[in-house]
Amino acid sequence: MLYDFFNYLNTIDIPGAGMFQYISFRATLAFVLSLFIAMVIGRKIINKLQQMQIGETIRDLSLEGQLSKKGTPTMGGIIIIIATLIPCLLVGRLNNIYMILMLVTTVWLGVLGFADDYIKVIKKNKEGMKGKFKIIGQIGLGLIVGLTLYLSPDVVIREKSSADTINQIGVVTEEVQNIDIKSTKTTIPFVKNHNFDYADLIPFAGEHAQTAGWVIFVIISILVVTAVSNGANLTDGLDGLAAGTTAIIGVTLGIFAYLSGHVIYAPYLDIMYIPGSEELVVFISAFVGALIGFLWYNVYPAQVFMGDTGSLTIGGIIAVLAITLRKELLLPLLCGIFLVESLSVILQTAYFKTTKKMYGEGRRIFKMTPLHHHFQKDGDGSINALWQSPKNKMPESRITLRFWIISILLAALTIVTLKIR
Asked: What is the spatial distance between Cα 163 and Cα 177, in angstroms, rounded to a whole number?
């Protein structure tokens, strides 16, 4: 809205109106606005949730300080969603395909998560929305994202094309041109040019390889959206853990978005140039600002929980950002916290079921999953688990901070991989 308005003012030479042409200015403005909105409306939403008695239902898992969280307002993800959407609508370019995709993603998963929280908290159904409906919603979003990137003519990557030309005196010269193409290429670390084409997976398809490559890309999009969204959902178990970790991941993707959308920096750093993706910097700035503003109320001891309204949304946003920037294959490293949390649950469940069949009694790998709860338990052998360390349980705030530090290290490694060839 404001972008178009100030763009008009710039055409009639109003001083200062041209500032809205700069990504850096609009990104900074989006960050400040989202941070301010989250902190201002956060208190009002928390008070409203308390008045409506929308509090967290806590199962007794014998964790220190757990029962004190009973009744803490949940569904606070509404704060993140509102604080992200408003700045984007104000200062973002609403005709940009990448911005449109991110707005759709935020609303789509926000509604899905809200419905789950509504069933749990308002309808008093502890199970919440059936898992299959969550998966259908996530698959639907992955399908929308994948097909949009395939079908939209605005989604291209720019590559250099060279051809030999002969001038009038017979001298052969190489002419280099930049061309915009539809491509199934993505970024992959530890290879010479950091690019991998999904179409290369099916060379037997011949002239249809590129189309088949897009089918694989859409399938990958669905898997990434589902996996990362659920990973963030599992990580949301300690005060500030999911929000802080996601903010770190968001900053890293913001760096990628800025470089990928910069006509000079992208070729200089030898990374994929994606015209129009620089607008994602505005969205990411608003998103990170909203997360930090939410952390004001969510750090230990939390005054509000994000609920599935927030956790499903922030995970989906990270997934779609990575897909649009062609960095989805970097997510296992960048989102290492989400990955390990998910794997801990999968391994624990599989091991418990297997040992129950073998020995008649289920055994565990971890003291408790998701992994962050493992560190809240004493390793005194009272729990039949393979991994008993640490012997003494850790305070919740220490676990959160250490997970944040690990996330920062993973973010740094993700950036470094682009220079390792």
From this structure: 8
